[in-house]
Amino acid sequence: MHDGHDHAHPLRPDRDEHPGYYQVMATALRELLLEKNVFTAEELRRQMEKMDERGPHLGARVVARAWADAAFKTRLLADGPAACRELGVDIGPTRLVVLENRPELHNLVVCTLCSCYPRALLGLPPDWYKSVNYRRRAVREPRAVLEEFGTRIPDGTAVRVHDSTAELRYIVLPMRPAGAEGLDEAALAALVTRDAMIGVALPKAP
Amino acid sequence: MRRAHDMGGLPGGPVTPEEHDYALWEKRVDAMSVLIGNKNIFNLDEFRHAIELLGADAHEKLSYYERWVYAIAHNLIQRGVITVDELGRRMTEVEKTGRT
């Protein structure tokens, strides 16, 4: 499984000792924009903190609430951003559509043009989501791609692929796994992985 | 005509579940681009357009955030926020002093 916890993260060398051309450019841009007061050092620091605070735990909280509270689920499917705000998660200016998995329908999210992703709920996207092969193939042979993630969707279940845009982001509401009845929301949230909310995996079994 | 970024549906190889912990410089670039957008220095479509103009090579030669750095610089120059000379001089200085 590739939920960001069960396997080692290969570290790309950060090359801070010998920065490349574009890293030098990034430093130069940052210095110039600070000097020109386009933004302040404090604003930059806060934005980076905000980024670090975001992650799949937020999406998992939303999914767990939807599993536990049918009225919340109805509101979530009708108006994703408003329902997320109830849990203190601000989606920002983009639209958000929540895709409900059902026994007859499995949803998968991709951004074929680039890397659009529900960052407010999942944090920054993993490299494979931005990769050429995922972007090319997710819309062409989604079942084969799912198999590469170890996810087998029964033949009787339709697979629907949703291509994100800069203005419209998607998140999958997975089906609550069997045996999860009676778990509290924290225990439910622990079953919800990032990859399950992208649609390349299923939630963990309780 | 289909441009390089418009790759949905083309044949491709296996998806390898790669990821890495974002480096400090990558987080800074990401944060800068969000702040630039919030302050309406240039918009997301201009940003995407610059990346899309990079063409097919860019996916092989540049990393994801390297493409972002290019797009930020391109738009800041287009908008007159900075000049090419100014950026060039500052890059020379940054490289000489090893600032990150």
The description of the largest β-sheet of chain B is: none
Q: Helix count of chain B, per DSSP?
A: 5
CATH arch. level architecture of the largest domain in chain A: Alpha-Beta Complex
SSE pattern of chain A: HHHHHEEHHHHEEHH
Give the overall silhouette of chain B. globular
How many E-type strands of chain A?
4
How far apart the termini of chain B lie comes to 40 Å
The CATH superfamily name of the largest domain in chain A is Nitrile hydratase alpha /Thiocyanate hydrolase gamma
Assembly type: heterodimer
**Poorly predicted tracts of residues of chain A:** 1-16
Per DSSP, what share of the residues of chain B sits in E-state strands of 2 or more residues? under 5%
Radius of gyration of chain B: 16 Å
Sequence stretches where pLDDT stays below 50 over 5 or more residues of chain B: none
Q: What structural class do the secondary elements of chain B suggest?
A: mainly alpha
Question: Largest interface, by Cβ-Cβ below 8 angstroms: which chains and how many residues each?
Answer: A-B, 57 and 58 residues
Radius of gyration of chain A: 19 Å
Beta strands of chain B, count? 0
Gap from first CA to last CA of chain A? 15 Å
CATH class of chain B: Mainly Alpha
Q: Beta-sheet strand percentage of chain A? A: 5-15%
Number of helices of chain A: 11
